Amino acid sequence: MKRICRQVYHKHRQLIIYIIMGGLTTVVSLILFYVSTWAFFNSKDALQLQAANIFSWTGSVMFAYIGNRMFVFRSTSRHVIKEMISFALSRVSTLLLDMAVMFVGVTLCGFRSDLVKWVSILLVTAVNYMLSRFYVFRHMS
Asked: φ, ψ for residue 76 (rounded to 5)?
């Protein structure tokens, strides 16, 4: 059994570590959001709520970049700024994808927001992985 687990890990290491980093990134995002709304922003104020959301998204993207660079794709590129900008732009594009899926699924089609959010999470995760692997860290894959 141990041997089978090792074989699966070695065959799918990148994807397994990516999923673990995604879970950790989600935790970082939630912590940043809740701490910022507790300490700095008033979540009852619409503008401050969005500021807290942007703060948590930015912090989690920075965390995700570092984790993906070091552990998932093991990048050794000296073009860190270019890589970081590519990563951030790819995450902005999937943020827009998330917003579009939610708008179409909930606002236009009337589906339950919690179900549409799970569909969006799965889609965004897959697209984030592909963008990271084939665009941002393409020389490491």
From this structure: -120, 15
Task: Say if CB 14 and CB 74 are below 8 A apart.
Answer: no
- The Cα–Cα gap between 53 and 106 comes to 20
Express each pLDDT in 60-109 by its tens digit: 999 999 999 999 999 999 999 999 999 999 999 999 999 999 999 999 99
pLDDT tens per residue, range 15-67: 999 999 999 999 999 999 999 999 999 988 889 988 998 999 999 999 999 99
DSSP string, 93-129: HHHHHHHHHHIIIIIIT---HHHHHHHHHHHHHHHHH
